[in-house]
Write a structure and sequence with these properties.
381 residues, alpha/beta, nine-stranded mixed beta sheet, 10 helices, binds nicotinamide-adenine-dinucleotide
Length: 381
């Protein structure tokens, strides 16, 4: 049966541009999606790079002007894969033009931008999604399922880390194409919006809302050369952030992120301790879920390592055979599969802009708490 074509416009051909393009290619082979995605146009800053990307990934055309993508009547979905300071302007224009939107995380530079984005997409009624892709690692989705089934009982603790080590050298510049994450004007914040936003999104999805936070942040290297101006300028981002929090369900949270943990490239881990059982997960071993069930007979009780590859586990019936694992890029395939299914029903996909606003509120409270050295209440989205 011929499926309705869905025209995709991608803005940003960097790291995320590749993951999203790969997902649109793969999804139709593995999932029974209601559309045939057509990669129409890719947009990015450098013309030659956009052209090369279009050729390599099968986009029909390329441009350096994102307005052309958003204004193109032929485009159904706008994929926003650019630095954080561009999310709001592009998403608002795309929503007003009636496009469905998949926006990379964090939703925006700050809360006021994020609130405006939610208002506009909701008024326009366009289906939307924010790319907190770690929810769609099958082991992470399984963890959510086990919690929802009540297997952990009352939850007492949620702790998460996201550790990297790539900015330890003072020679790494801020700003520009490769290092915009270190420039407060492009990124909005440091590890809080870049890394902890992922942990916060997953945590609130699994364990409910965060009500209040107490944080500390540090900027270890106070000045860096700016790649665009060539001048040494003050660094405005948080290099490291640790915060404590309460969840609405009474459990305690403990979160840490840094780009100064020598030896760690992308160590995202979480552990959840409940009255009946505990769960632990590690991005470096992403297809496994550690699980401890206190109801096991004591002589065989212990942490099990569940290999999340069986066909009755989330998303896994779509891939290979039991025992064969999948990886990072598949999280984006799952995201697109869910997005297309919901799109056919005229619905947004979780986490939508409003859920991402809730994460933005937590990030904002974290940064405010660190600045004021006080507990901060988190606004409700
Ligand atoms: N979901 C995740 O796990 C994840 C991982 C990495 C990045 N991200 C997010 O994705 C977004 C992009 O990050 P990235 O790592 O892909 O960045 P990147 O630096 O690899 O790519 C950025 C792209 O934006 C384009 N761009 C910049 N300014 C532009 C403009 N004015 N008009 C058009 N294009 C422009 C550049 O040409 C480049 O192609 C960020 O919001 C980031 O936080 C999410």
């Amino acid at each position: 049966m011929t499926k309705k074509k869905l025209n995709i416009g991608l803005i940003g051909y960097g790291f995320m541009g590749r993951t999203h393009s790969n997902a649109y290619h793969r999804v139709k082979n593995f999932f029974d999606v209601p559309y045939e995605p057509v990669l129409q146009v890719v947009c990015g800053l450098v013309e030659a790079e956009a052209k090369a990307f279009a050729e390599q990934w099968g986009y029909k055309s390329h441009t350096t002007d994102w307005h052309k993508v958003v204004e193109d009547e032929n485009i159904d979905v706008v994929e926003i894969c650019v630095p954080n300071n561009l999310h709001a302007e592009i998403a608002i224009a795309a929503a007003k033009a009636g496009k469905a939107i998949c926006c990379e995380k964090p939703l925006a530079l700050n809360v006021s931008e994020a609130e405006e984005m939610v208002k506009v997409v909701e008024e326009a009624g366009v289906p939307n999604l924010v790319s907190f892709n770690y929810r769609r690692v099958p082991a992470v989705t399984l963890a959510k399922q086990l919690i929802d089934e009540g297997r952990l009982g009352k939850i007492f603790h949620y702790r998460a880390n996201f550790l990297q080590d790539w900015t330890i050298s003072a020679k790494v510049p801020q700003g520009g194409m490769a290092t915009w994450r270190l420039d407060i004007k492009a990124a909005g914040s440091g590890v809080t919006g870049d890394l902890l936003a992922h942990c916060i999104d997953t945590a609130m999805w699994q364990n409910g809302p965060i009500t209040d936070v107490c944080a500390m942040t540090e900027t270890f290297i106070k000045e860096r050369m700016h790649a665009e101006t060539g001048k040494v300028e003050p660094v405005g981002i948080d290099d490291a952030c640790t915060f404590l929090c309460h969840f609405d369900n009474g459990s305690l949270g403990n979160f840490e992120s840094t780009r100064y943990a020598r030896g760690h490239k992308a160590l995202y881990t979480f552990e959840i301790n409940g009255e009946k059982a505990s769960i632990a997960w590690d991005l470096h071993d992403l297809h496994r879920l550690s699980y401890f069930d206190h109801s096991d007979e004591s002589i065989v009780r212990g942490w099990r390592s569940i290999h999340v590859t069986d066909s009755d586990m989330p998303y896994m019936d779509k891939w290979w055979v039991p025992g064969l694992q999948i990886g990072y890029e598949h999280t984006f395939v799952h995201q697109v599969a869910d997005f297309l299914q919901n799109l056919a029903e005229g619905k947004s996909t979780s986490p939508d802009f409003r859920e991402a606003l809730a994460t933005q509120y937590v990030c904002d409270a974290v940064l405010t708490s660190a600045k004021n050295k006080k507990w901060e209440t988190v606004k409700k989205a």
